[in-house]
Design a protein that fits this description.
By secondary structure, the chain is α+β, with helices and mostly antiparallel strands. About 30% of the residues lie in helices and about 25% in strands. Helix 1 packs across helix 4 and helix 2 crosses helix 4. The protein starts with a strand and ends with a strand.
Length: about 550
């Protein structure tokens, strides 16, 4: 009797493996298509960015601080790579599930699309349900592709569809390409009889085509998203910042010490620290940017354009900024020359009075285009210090990473309560009625910068030669100024270091100490005293809730 030969469905490990591979192709397609669709909505609506942003919002402060401490400004890259790694594992798992339960695996892909959509629409900067589109469309494409690819592995009919067919059969990957049809039909991994066979050529062609199409979609999406920032880039190139009506005095001679290894007195833009929650740096077009000032005590509400700001009197100041996530001896502090509009003058034009003069609002809430909110004490902003809406940094328009076109800064306050980048809105309110982003996450409402100092050279575990070793670094106590720096070797007495000339009380101050080093291991420790007479405390505290404290030490070995 002649038997018709037809391909049999794959079973066992080979089926699970190719199912997992199908899941990987489907996940890749979902992300790529979502990237393309996000170009029609906004780049921040893409699932990786949206889920990453939601993860940042919900991460405990201690974990965020750990990430900044260990990964520095690469923390966002690490987060995105971590999300992609998790998505890869999930895609493999859903593909393996689909190899056995085709519909369930495909529905799993759709479920993750729902997660992405919810993350996108729940972000603080989301203004429309259209933010859900990239995740939804990507998930639909991914689910459909997974269902289709797994179908190329062969399908099974339920045993009830073939009376008399057995309910179980041993897996046999050795018979993959063909088998006689007749007699009892072997049962596949779904507990049913053979439906359609394993289409090796069809699977390879389908997978290859899917990968190529996904790559094309992803590249197109990346290009389109990149082009959306071209107007912003062009607007920045055209910015000409007028001369300040109140210029910064020249840096005093002797303020910048010529010592190898010490931080430069002025921090170049490319080296200036960046700590924020934006996974995608906002590219804001200066020609369409606006700032609204409103809220309690504002008698003359205003909406300003970038050109409006440039027409106002500008001030130029050297100011040192510090991030509250800076550990003792950490790198998140930098000094730059800023130019901008004095914030107190602008608030006064809007009729704002500080609470010390009878004003109803004690908190200024600054909002960024990415949804960040930062709350600053109105009294501090209007007490005469050089709080400003900055438009320039070190002689250039603000870099995008540092807030172009406009950012806020307040000397003497940690960045999380003063330094709103990409600012778009200022609301006057009270601390009792509103908690800003970081306050909701257990950081303090008010956070003046603590008096701190750092040893820049020699480096930890360095091996200088015996003899005179120059120990040097920086100290800061913005809006108070540094009065004294002392160095201690091991458990010896405190010796006063030589202070560089002071620029202003809002800038850090360099220092040096000539140490007659002897051979062996030694511990160098530094402490500073500010102009109020307060010496930085030895007590170590973490960065949460209002900044780290303690003395900075380095261990060296003298050869």
């Amino acid at each position: 009797m002649d038997h018709e030969v037809r391909p049999r469905p794959l079973r066992g490990f080979k089926r699970l493996s190719l199912g997992a591979l199908s899941g990987l192709f489907a996940g890749y397609a979902a992300i790529a298509v979502a990237e393309l669709v996000s170009a029609t909505v906004r780049p921040e609506s893409g699932p990786v960015i949206a889920v990453g942003g939601a993860a940042i919002d919900r991460t405990p402060p201690g974990v965020k601080d750990w990430a900044i401490r260990h990964f520095g400004t690469n923390d966002k890259l690490v987060l995105q790579l971590g999300i992609l790694a998790v998505l890869t594992v999930l895609a493999l798992a859903l593909g393996a599930v689909a190899a056995r339960w085709r519909v369930i695996g495909s529905l799993g892909v759709l479920a993750f699309g729902v997660v992405g959509a919810l993350a996108a629409t729940s972000r603080p900067d989301s203004t429309s349900v259209s933010d859900a589109l990239p995740s939804v469309v990507g998930a639909v494409i991914g689910a459909g592709l997974l269902y289709w690819l797994v179908g190329r592995l062969g399908t099974f009919r339920k045993a009830a569809d073939e009376p008399g067919a057995p309910t179980e059969a041993a897996d046999d990957d050795s018979v993959a390409d063909g088998a006689p049809v007749g007699g009892a039909s072997p049962v596949g991994s779904e507990g049913g009889a053979e439906g359609s066979g394993w289409d090796r050529r069809g699977f390879i062609l389908a997978a290859t085509a899917a990968a190529a199409a996904s790559t094309g979609a992803g590249l197109a999406g990346r290009a389109l998203n990149g082009s959306q920032g071209q107007n912003a880039v062009a607007s920045r190139k055209k910015v000409v910042i007028p001369a300040a009506s109140s210029t910064a005095a020249p840096v005093p001679k002797g303020a910048a010490l010529r010592i190898n290894g010490i931080s430069p007195f002025m921090t170049p833009n490319d080296d200036f620290y960046r700590v924020d929650t934006a996974l995608v740096v906002p590219k804001v077009d200066a020609t369409s940017w606006q700032l609204r000032i409103h809220g309690q005590g504002v008698t003359r509400e205003r909406t300003l354009s970038f050109d409006d700001l440039l027409k106002m009197p500008l001030i130029e100041r050297n100011i040192t900024l510090t991030c509250v996530s800076n550990e003792v001896g950490g790198p998140y502090v930098g000094n730059a020359r800023w130019i901008g509009v004095r914030l107190a003058d602008l608030l006064k034009e809007c009729g704002v009075r500080p609470p010390s003069k009878g004003g109803p609002a004690d908190q200024l809430v600054a909002r960024s285009v990415d949804g960040m909110t930062i709350g600053s004490p109105v009294d501090d902003v209007m007490d005469g210090r050089d709080a400003m809406l900055a438009v320039g940094m070190n002689g250039q328009p603000l870099p995008f990473e540092h807030g172009f076109p406009v950012r806020m800064l307040v000397p003497g306050l940690y960045g999380y309560v003063s330094a709103c980048k990409w600012i778009k809105d200022i609301e006057l309110t009270t601390f009792d009625s509103y908690d800003s982003y970081w306050v909701k996450r257990d950081w303090a409402q008010k956070a003046p910068i603590k008096t701190e100092s750092r040893i820049d050279t020699p480096k930890p575990f360095g091996r200088p030669k015996a003899g005179t070793v120059v120990v040097a670094g920086v100290a800061w106590a913005q809006h108070r100024g540094i009065d004294k720096v002392e160095v201690r070797v091991d458990d010896g007495p405190w010796d006063e270091a030589r202070l560089a000339a002071e620029d202003t009380r809002d800038t850090w101050r360099q220092w040096s100490y000539e140490w007659p080093a002897t051979k062996g291991g030694h511990t160098l420790t530094v402490r500073a005293t500010d102009r109020t007479g307060e010496t930085q405390t030895e007590k170590r505290t973490p960065t949460i809730p209002d900044g780290a404290s303690g003395w900075h030490s380095v261990v060296v070995t003298i050869d």
